[in-house]
Write a structure and sequence with these properties.
Distance between the termini of chain B: 38 Å
Number of strands of chain A: 8
Mean pLDDT of chain B: 94
Oligomer: heterodimer
GO biological process, one term (chain B): amino acid metabolic process
Low-confidence stretches of chain B: none
CATH topology of the largest domain in chain B: Aspartate Aminotransferase, domain 2
Number of domains of chain B: 2
Cofactor (chain B): pyridoxal 5'-phosphate
Structural class of chain A: alpha+beta
Shape of chain A: globular
Helix content of chain B: 25-40%
Protein name (chain B): Cysteine desulfurase
Low-confidence stretches of chain A: none
Strand content of chain B: 5-15%
CATH superfamily of the largest domain in chain B: Type I PLP-dependent aspartate aminotransferase-like (Major domain)
Catalytic activity (chain B): (sulfur carrier)-H + L-cysteine = (sulfur carrier)-SH + L-alanine
Strand content of chain A: 15-25%
Helix content of chain A: 40-55%
EC number (chain B): 2.8.1.7
Number of helices of chain A: 10
Largest sheet of chain B: 7 strands, mixed
Strand order of the largest sheet of chain B: 2-8-7-6-5-3-4
Radius of gyration of chain B: 22 Å
CATH class of the largest domain in chain B: Alpha Beta
Strand order of the largest sheet of chain A: 1-2-3
């Protein structure tokens, strides 16, 4: 069974904003029955040009439904310029993290949003141009190039997690590998190793800026206790300390953030 | 109501009688069956009894039964034994709908210099026998075909296939882990050379299996070391589990006919109730040739994992052929091989029952599942726009 955070379960079992907005200003549809997941997102702007109402319809698994639901909550009250900046990582983060095999569910949310905004502006939605690489899920080489570049992906498995390509019959693995290989020269060089003091500073800054605000929204908090090499010792507080999904929060959110923004070898442990 | 367990093709509850039979061999009766003293000898005697019981269940002779650690080991042992016995032959035939225990093994062997043929099935899940027989040639070392499919319950005509394969002088193996204990099998009047059994699929414990090896079949062991199992599998016996498997086999042989009627009646009640209450639902598999405990139902326009998790909230355990639950992204290879359309394949649920299920449980599912499906359909962009 997949390990879902409490937030994923909550949004799956109690989805918010299901349906289609009447007289919608923008509608975005992505996915298909063949792919196993699909999302229709519709929104209406208020007189202040902020998103007043937004609804979704999703065919898909628990994380697809939860991603759609949490996205609609995030979008309410945003201007379209703000909405455009919502990334799939933001969606996953708002859910307290998604299993890496399910990242494509958050990508679907971002893609539907992009299409809905294009629809509102009367722009033709970006066509999935390029050559189909993955026949099973209809993914083109351009889409694969885009996610590899945007997310600095380095393996076929990661590509599958993001856009599903390669997750079916696997005949396209050689083609995906070729695309990955074409970026090998572009892989960002590893930064010089951090000094201990700089590492601890960065950990503290990241916890303050990226982690604590999210936990506080749920009535929880986190305290940095110590840093021992790559081991980051923390103490969860408030609601987080008694939350059944605290391990998922620690690994899926706190550790992921620290690895992304400080050093990718950090391991977070609760004391 | 706590847990309603309808996932018996994944694993079964260890029967209380089986557990009782096993318990002393975890505590006071801990002797090694290979020992010369009587303390170990009494354990060896119980293993002999277990072997006889397993043999009786499938109409075999006790010395044709080799105990293993699981169904997968039995499958691997059978295939590798056949290949080792005929090193000059490089062709393996199996089906597109096998359990990964065979499918993955044969795919792996395909990368190691063996030629492989995967026999297709039709929309009902029945094998293309003409394709199968046409694929055999002098290079074929083994044909391995499951007796009953774990996802749809479809039963294959194994006796007929084995007889044809044997006429060509080719070794025939069947992965029968879903069939043993559910349908009568009689190896004495069969052409099957090797047959795999798994303990936990018939109310025995996990971690034990058996391989039937017809007398005279060329065999080479996978585990080499001690002389256990007549040198066919080294390693001290998993005594308690073997004794448990023996008891499970004894119970199955005694109760199979009566229990089949009871389980099939519950299965049919479930199927009828769900199909009556839920539109756009269909049965996958051949309803005329199917295990008595299994039904695989597709609910169009919804996705299997979402159904399973909502059922889980109600305490109902089943299984899904959907991609999301398997770690892969494509729907069940079995349903895809049958050509089940995507509209159905993603939303397929396997219910597999046992003698421990009750009518009350089935009625609970019939009452609770339709609103779950409707709820998910109301959320689905395809439901309102479905073709009428």
């Amino acid at each position: 069974m997949w390990e879902y955070t409490g937030k994923v379960k909550d949004h799956f079992l109690n989805p918010r904003n299901v349906g289609v907005v009447e007289n919608a200003d923008g509608i975005g549809e992505v996915g298909s029955l063949a792919c196993g997941d699909a999302l229709k997102l519709s929104f209406k702007l208020g007189s202040d040009n902020k998103i007043e109402d937004v609804k979704f319809q999703t065919f898909g698994c628990a994380s697809a439904i939860a991603s759609s639901s949490v996205l609609t909550e995030m979008l309410k009250g945003m201007t379209l310029e703000e909405a455009e900046k919502v990334s799939n990582e933001d969606i996953a983060e708002a859910l307290g993290g998604l299993p890496r095999e399910k990242m494509h569910c958050s990508v679907m949310g971002r893609d539907a949003l992009e299409k809905a905004i294009s629809n509102f502006r009367g722009q033709e939605a970006k066509k999935a141009d390029g050559q189909i690489v993955c026949d099973c899920f209809g993914v083109t080489d351009k889409e694969i190039h885009r996610v590899v570049k945007e997310h600095n992906l380095s393996s076929i498995e990661e590509v599958t997690n993001y856009v599903k390509a390669g997750g079916g019959c696997q005949k396209c693995h050689a083609d995906i590998q070729e695309i990955l290989d074409s970026y090998k020269g572009d892989v960002k060089p590893k930064p010089a190793p951090l000094t201990n003091i700089r590492k601890i500073q960065l950990i503290q800054e990241t916890l303050e800026r990226e982690v604590r605000p999210t936990l506080k929204q749920d009535g929880g908090d986190i305290e940095l206790v110590d840093v021992d090499g790559d081991k980051v010792l923390v103490r969860l507080q408030g609601r987080c300390s008694s939350c059944q999904a605290s391990q998922a929060t620690l690994k899926g959110h706190v550790e992921a953030k620290l690895r992304e923004l400080v050093v990718d070898t950090l391991v977070v442990e609760e004391v | 109501m706590d847990t309603i367990y309808l996932d018996n093709n994944a694993t079964t509850m260890t029967a209380p009688e089986v557990l009782q039979e096993m318990l002393p061999y975890f505590s006071e009766l801990y002797g090694n069956p290979s020992s010369m003293h009587s303390f170990g000898g009494q354990v060896a005697e119980k293993i002999r009894e277990a072997r006889a019981k397993v043999a009786k269940l499938i109409g075999a002779s006790p010395d044709e039964i080799l105990f293993t650690s699981c169904g997968t080991e039995s499958d691997s042992t059978a295939v590798m034994a056949a290949l080792n016995a005929h090193p000059e032959k490089k062709h393996i035939v199996t089906t597109k709908v096998e359990h990964p225990a065979i499918k993955s093994l044969v795919e792996h062997l395909g990368t190691k210099g063996y030629r492989t043929t995967f026999v297709p099935v039709d929309a009902k899940g029945d094998l293309d026998l003409e394709f199968l027989f046409d694929s055999l040639d002098d290079d074929t070392a083994i044909v391995s075909i499951m007796w009953a499919n774990n996802e749809t319950g479809t039963i294959f005509p194994i006796e007929e296939i084995a007889a044809q394969v044997k006429k060509r002088g080719i070794v025939f193996h069947t992965d029968a882990v879903q069939a043993v204990g559910k349908i009568p099998l009689d190896m004495a009047n069969s052409s099957v050379d090797m047959l795999s059994i798994s303990g936990h699929k018939l109310h025995g414990p996990k971690g034990v299996g058996a391989l039937y090896i017809r007398k005279g079949t060329k065999f080479s062991p996978m585990l080499i070391g001690g002389h256990q199992e007549k040198g066919r599998r080294a390693g001290t016996e998993n005594t308690a589990s073997i004794i448990g498997l023996g008891k499970a086999a004894e119970l199955a042989a005694k109760n199979m006919a009566k229990e089949n009627l009871q389980v099939a009646a519950l299965r049919d009640r479930l199927e009828k109730g769900l199909l009556e209450k839920i539109p756009n639902a269909r049965i996958n598999g051949n309803p005329d040739s199917r295990l008595p405990n299994t039904t695989n139902i597709s609910f169009e326009y919804v996705e299997g994992e979402a159904i399973l998790l909502m059922m889980n909230e109600l305490g109902i355990c089943a299984s899904s052929g959907s991609a999301c639950t398997s770690g892969s992204l494509e729907p069940s290879h079995v349903l895809r091989a049958m050509g089940v359309p995507f509209t159905c394949a993603h939303g397929s649920i396997r219910f597999s029952l046992s003698i421990y299920n009750t009518q009350e449980e089935i009625d609970f599912v019939i009452e609770k599942l339709p609103p779950v499906i409707q709820r998910l359909r109301d959320m689905s962009p395809f439901w309102a726009d479905r073709p009428q």
